[in-house]
Amino acid sequence: MTRQETIALVALASSSYPSMQARDPRPIVEAWSLMLADLDPQLAKAAIVKVCRESQFFPSVAQITAAAAGLDPRSEQL
User: Fold this and answer.
1) Are 1 and 37 in contact, with CB atoms under 8 Å apart?
2) Are 54 and 66 in contact (CB under 8 A)?
3) Residue 28 phi/psi, 5° resolution?
4) Residue 47's closest CA among 4, 21, 1?
5) Alpha carbon of 72 to those of 36, 57, 62, 75: distances in Å?
């Protein structure tokens, strides 16, 4: 995932949480760029949308990766 794609995903998630809209997004962009780099951008977007719909709090990397694993048809479901 590119930095621009990460910026767009942070903006999408931030727009869903009023308390995040006034915050500086740069630390989140840096963290997500590093920790979500291996995710497909469309899968990451779907995972963020899922987490935002289900949580009252801004999504963590762990929530995003768990949601992505649940949405990815390639991941093994036991």
Assistant:
1) yes
2) no
3) -70, -45
4) 1
5) 14, 23, 15, 6
Neighbours of 64 (CB within 10 A): 23
Tens digits of per-residue pLDDT, 37-76? Answer: 999 999 999 999 999 999 999 999 999 999 999 998 776 6
In eight-state DSSP terms, residue 58 is P
Alpha-carbon gap, residue 53 to 30, rounded angstroms = 24
Q: Helix 26-35 and helix 3-15: axis angle, to 10°?
A: 120
Report the distance separating Cα 51 and Cα 57, nearest Å.
Answer: 9
